[in-house]
Amino acid sequence: MLAATMNRVDPDDPLAGLQVGEHPEPTAPEGWSVVTVRAASLNHHDIWSLRGHGPRNAPLPRVLGSDVAGVDESGNEVLIHSLINDPAWTGDEVLDPRISMLSDFHDGGLAERIAVPTRNLVPKPAGLSFEHAACLPTAWLTAYRMLFVLAGATAGTTVLMQGAGGGVATAVIMLGKAAGVRVWVTGRSEEKRERAVALGAAAAFPPGARLPERVDAVIETVGAATWAHSMKAVRAGGIIVVAGMTSGSHPPLDIERVYLANLRIVGTTMGSRHDLEQLVRLVVDQNLRPPIHEVIPLAETQAGFQAMLAGDLFGKLVARP
Ligand SMILES: NC(=O)c1ccc[n+]([C@@H]2O[C@H](COP(=O)([O-])OP(=O)(O)OC[C@H]3O[C@@H](n4cnc5c(N)ncnc54)[C@H](OP(=O)(O)O)[C@@H]3O)[C@@H](O)[C@H]2O)c1
C-alpha cells in the first residue's frame, strides 16, 4: 500500500528522512482492528519524529501520521484516538507511563490502511466529513484539553493564544468562541491576524505586543519565541498551559515572577478518549468545522510538510489516500 514513512532521523533536515512509497499492509493482532484510511491530517509531531524526538528504539521504516479518520472492518465510520496505552492501563490515558502516540512505535495513519487497538476507535458523526474528522484527534483534542480541562475556561474567561493560524491556534479560537471565552491571539502576519478575527478571535496582536490587560490563561505551543511574553501577559494567579515548543524549548524562566504572581505552569500531551468524545460532541452541537488549509493527495505529503515547516499554513493540512 502507499504510505508516508520515516526512514531515518535527521535533526537538521527532517524531510530528508521522509519517503512516500510502498509499505507492507498492516496486520491486526487480537484486540486490534484494521481501518481503511479516508483522511489523515499532518502534524508537527511528524516533523519532531523525523528530527529524532521520538523513542530511540522504535522500528524503521515507520508510517507517520497521528490524526486519522476512516472505515473499520465492519463498515463503521470512525476516528482514531491516537494514544496507545499499555493493555493493562485503566486510568486517564495521558497519564500512562508506557504511553506512546500513533506513529511513535506503531505505524501511523498517513497510509491507505492502519492497524490500531479496537478500543481506540471513536464513532464518527455522520454529518462530519472524513477530512474534518481527521483534524480532531491531535491538534483539536490538545486544544480542547488545554482550554477546558486544564485552563478551566468558561464564558467570560480571557485567554491568550500564542499563534493565530496553527492547528492548535485555530482550534482554540473556534472552541473558545463557541463556549463564550474571549480569545486573544498573536499572529506573525497581518493576514493571519485578520483571518483569526474572522474565525472568532476577539482580538489579534503582533507577537510580543502589550495587551490591553493581563489574561486569565495563556495557551503556549510556540515556546522560546513567545515565552517571555506569555509570562508577562498572564495575571496573578493565572495559568500558562504548555503543549509545544515549535520555536525552541529552552527559554529563560523568571522564577521570581512565577512565585510572586502565584502563577501555575501546566504541561499537557493530547487528551483522553473521554476528552475526544466530549470534543466530538461539542463540534457537532456547535456545528464547528476545523479550518482546512488544503486537502492534498497522500502522494504529495512531502510538499505538505515543507509548507508546515515554512509556517505558511492557516488551519490543517489533510492528506487523502
Ligand atoms: N503536546 C501535545 O500533545 C501537542 C499536540 C499538538 C501539537 N503540539 C505541538 O504544538 C505546536 C503547534 O502545533 P500546531 O499543530 O498548531 O502547529 P502548526 O499548525 O504548524 O502551527 C504553528 C503555530 O506556531 C505559531 N508560531 C508563532 N511564532 C512562531 C515561530 N517563531 N516559529 C514557529 N511557529 C510560530 C504559528 O503562528 P502564526 O499563526 O503566526 O503562523 C502557528 O500558530 C507544535 O510544536 C506541536 O508539536 C503538541
TrEMBL record:
Molecular-function GO terms, alphabetical: oxidoreductase activity
Classification via Gene3D superfamilies: Medium-chain alcohol dehydrogenases, catalytic domain, NAD(P)-binding Rossmann-like Domain
All residue ranges annotated as the Enoyl reductase (ER) domain in the record: 13-319
Coiled-coil regions listed in the entry: none
Region (Disordered): 1-29
Alphabetized InterPro entries for the sequence: ADH-like_C, ADH-like_N, ER, GroES-like_sf, NAD(P)-bd_dom_sf, Zinc_ADH-like
Protein name listed in UniProt: Alcohol dehydrogenase zinc-binding domain protein
Organism: Pseudofrankia inefficax (strain DSM 45817 / CECT 9037 / DDB 130130 / EuI1c)
